[in-house]
Amino acid sequence: MKVNNEFYLLIKTVPGLEDIAAMEVKNLLGNVDKIIVRPHGIMGRILVKVSISPFRFCRILNEKAKSIEKVVVLLGMYKVSRTKKGLEDIYEVVKASKFSNFLTPHDSFGVRPSREGKHEYTSLDIGKVGGDAVIDEMKEVYGLRPAVNLKHPSIIIYCDVVGDTCMIGIDTTGDMALHKRGYRVFDHPAALRPTIAYAMIKIANVKEGEILLDPFCGGGTILIEAARLYRSLKIFGLDIFAENIKGAYLNAISAGVAEKIAFIVGDATKLDKIFNINIDKIICNPPYGIRQLRGEKRKEIPRLYDKFLLSASKILADDGLICIITPKKKTIKLAIEKSELQICHEREIYHGGLKAHIFTLKKQK
Ligand SMILES: C[S@@+](CC[C@H](N)C(=O)[O-])C[C@H]1O[C@@H](n2cnc3c(N)ncnc32)[C@H](O)[C@@H]1O
Question: What is the spatial distance between Cα 212 and Cα 231, in angstroms, rounded to a whole number?
Answer without folding.
Answer: 13
